[in-house]
Amino acid sequence: MASLRPQGKKGAGSLWRLGLIWIFLIAVAVQLVSKPGRAQAPAGDRARIAGEAQEALRKGDYANAIKSLETLVKLEPGIAEIHANLATACYAVGRFDDAAHEALEALKLKPSLTNAHFFLGLSLAESNRCQQALPYLEEDYGRTPDSQLKRALGTDAVRCAMSLNQSDRAIDFIRALNHDFPDDPDLLYLSSHVYSDLSTRAAQRLLMTAPESYQAHQFNAEVLELEGKLSEAADEYRKVLSLRPNLVGIHYQLGNLFLAGERGPHTLDEARAEFQEELKIDPRNAAAEYELGEMARQAREWTDAIEHFGRAASLDPQFADALIGLGKSLASAGRAQEAIRPLEQAVTLAPANPNAHYQLSFAFRRLGRDQEAAKELAAYRETHDKFAKTMQNIRTGILGNIAQPQTDTPPD
Amino acid sequence: MRVTRRKFLQSTGAASMVLCGAARLGAQGMASRGVRPGPRPKFSGKPWLVAFTDVAPRAGLTAATVYGEEYVKRYIVEANGPGIAFFDYDHDGWLDVFVPTGTRLEGFPPGQEPTNHLYHNNRDGTFTDVTTKAGLRHTGWCYGICVGDYDNDGRDDLFLTYYGQNVLYHNNGDGTFTDVTEKAGLLESPPRYGTGCTFVDYDRDGRLDLFISRYIDLDLARTPVGGSSRYCKYRGVPVNCGPMGLQQETCALYHNNGDGTFTDVSAKAGILRAGTRYGLTAVAFDYNNDGWPDLFVACDSSPNLLFRNNHDGTFSEVGMESGCAVNDDGQEQANMGVGVGDYDGDGYLDLFLPHFSDDTPILYRNVKGEFFDDLTNAAGLAVNTQYVCWGVGFADFDNDGWLDIFHVTGTVYPEVEKVYPDYKFKTPRVVYRNLGNGSFEEVSELCGTAVLEPHSSRGCAFGDFNNDGNVDVLVLNMSEPPSLLRNDNRSGHHWLNVKLVGTRSNRSAIGARVAVTTGAHRQVREVLSASSYISQNDLRQHFGLGTARKVDQLEVRWPSGLVERASGVDADQFIVIEEGKTKG
């Protein structure tokens, strides 16, 4: 599995850590001033060193901050806040083992010191001591009010859970993170990797434990299909059928393979036969009904198309594409009045689908209901443009802007 | 079970898969839908007795069209290429040939610049290059061609669009032409990327106005060179950039003032209200049979435009409402050329537009002038998706009385073939025979080697250059001389060829409608200034008559509104009808 750490611009990880530091530093000088002197060094010296530490931290000079704080720890080993600040500074520079040690020391002295608790979990996770880190991360994720810290705790928790092979725990954290930070690119990236990794692990387990099972063949068929090896995929699906002749969905997949491949004079008949076979096994397969409807529609066999689309839509009332197919076929068959209802349902179910609005607009136009047609056409244009803009954003986001040539040549 | 595991895997697969998908979305160029060809219907078994022979070399059409480097296209301006024209400039009843050319970005040494060519028809199957004598030497990125007698002096004039300044040539009637662009008020400042053009008498005042479509707001200095951007790749191979990602352009309408000048009325006439597109072929025809010419623009990777004539000097853009802007699924396609013809004999002119590779062409059936129905699949025309398609037309090649379809092909990315040998730069022509029942079947392989020979073609024009009663095809090939495909039709079917001369209407009779009835079969043609891919067809109207030796009724509806009829017209002849002089 690829790294589950949040990815970003170079150095973003450490910058992000530094963001946390400022929030959780404790005013050590205050602690020192308020404590009576009991060490060898005079109170003035301790205050000066504390001041230097604070100043170095303020400037982001963590090396000197750590130096000062380490001196202070020697002078005042019993002050939890100094250990906590030293833990924070060590965390900032990536000295995670030292950070964890200091955070632990702080908590021994003052168990209620929450920031030490937070940094203990984070530091343990970063130093790959996930078994120890996870209970801290889990406990802290729920109680911290700070979103930046919550995000850090959550992502480390996911990473640790995955490395410990505790997928349920990882999924719980992914769910929580996606709920709390729905559009965060780092977390969406992390989520895609986690789900992908889980899928791969399950597939590997399936292939290792039951290589002769119909499920293994079915999985293999799907992978081959995705790779565009349609003929090999079909062979695998047929192996599935030889093991489980009545397995739901396999004839449907074979029908789709016929439609996706090179088409000869009998291709449509072969695909149709597979969809019909599927419906004998699973009469509630709306997708097979839809495909039969689409084939009939393309052949302008309106009665058949209407029948199949109608059945698909009644089997799955949320199936917007089936409703669109039904509406299109009814309108083409000269039954535009009857087309309105399914197309309106499709628009309700899929308001962002430009095709639904386009077909409804056309049906209204056939009926001479020009005002409603114009309204739907406007909705078509809006949804179409929005979709086109989204696609354009993806293009420019990933490939760059055509008007701004880039010098790099990425791998294809 | 609606969401299959396959779909589930596709939607929730690894990030790399999603990214890979996104990168595919980013494949630039012309709109393409990744569509697989539909099944080929069983062959009808009907004999097809048409073969084409490329007679261009022996006819003397030998000058190659230069359009940038042959195998490297750094900018889109080098890749798209021009139209071509059949053009009887000396009005001797024999079609002459106009072949445009481009240039190269780095230019040519003085005296070696390529030029457009005008070839005079010697009436014996050969042609003579008369370019210099005609005063038509010109070097530049020539695109579209349209022909029409804008000053009604009885001689058809020539308009050319350019990536650069468009040119209007006045036909002096003595075999020479004069560039009157400036005098006519047609200079553009700065010059733009003109593509389609058509003469059209949109206000029916008897004078031909001019409509121009434009492609891209293109400044080469600001446009990345091919392959320099990650955006500009096709199948991973660096190629020229665009059109997607580059700025679209507006169309323009110029009103003929009647004194040899034109006035830009694009805003007043409502043309600019339609906004911008990647406009290519423009064609004027009366789609709703109301007697007023409308305007259609085939647009690349953007919705087509249909300007409905409001009869008051203005237009309303109704492409989307009429169903010919996008396909049946509401998706735009890469429309380059457009064929216009009444393929089903219902009296309404239909449209056929072939597209970029990985997409089917589209057949828009005109339903009573109210809207267009996408009948591509039902008509058996979804069988080829492998070609990038350009010039196209409806023509009755076997004279059986039903309009067939011909289109040319050729990719815009010659670089790709070097990496993927199966992605050919040069590809064959395609012919579909009209079965007379609303459907077509491909007969390319029955048409002889001239059709199957691979070229990277662009424009094509239809006309009977040897006056033998069969429709021939003139094809513009990139970096090669043109092809002149002589139709050697052995069907023995009868035909009629009609030339119209306007008197109250414009002299070229552009916009006139001719209907021929034989028995129960009625065929309709309209005189078009341009169509195909930015090309000019024979202005004469050809009708195949099947076994009929006579036309029962011939009807002409002139742009002036006059309707004239003649009956019992003998087949197998060329006739000229002058407006107002028919004795029915």
Describe the structure.
The complex is a heterodimer of chains A (412) and B (584). Chain A starts with 11 loop residues before the first helix and ends in a 13-residue tail after the last helix. Chain A has 412 residues and is mainly alpha-helical. Chain A has helices at 12-24, 28-34, 43-59, 62-75, 80-92, 96-109, 114-126, 130-143, 147-163, 167-180, 185-209, 214-226, 230-243, 250-260, 267-281, 286-298, 302-315, 320-332, 336-349, 354-366, 370-399. In chain B, a hairpin with a 5-residue loop joins strand 8 (167-171) and strand 9. With 584 residues, chain B is mainly beta. Chain B is built from eight helices and 37 strands. Chain B starts with a helix and ends in a 6-residue tail after the last strand. Chain B is 8% helix and 34% strand. Chains A and B meet through helix 11, helix 12, helix 14, helix 16 and helix 20 of A and helix 1 and helix 2 of B.
Structural class of chain B: mainly beta
Biggest sheet descriptor of chain B: 8 strands, antiparallel
Radius of gyration of chain A: 31 Å
Sequence of secondary-structure elements of chain A: HHHHHHHHHHHHHHHHHHHHH
Number of E-type strands of chain B: 37
Helix content of chain A: over 70%
Shape of chain B: globular
Average of per-residue pLDDT values of chain A = 86
Shape of chain A: elongated
Broad structural category of chain A: mainly alpha
| Rg calc of chain B | 23 Å
Largest sheet of chain A: none
Give the strand content of chain A.
under 5%
Helical proportion of chain B, percent range: under 10%
What do the pLDDT scores of chain B average to?
Answer: 92
Give unreliable regions of chain A as ranges: 1-16, 404-412
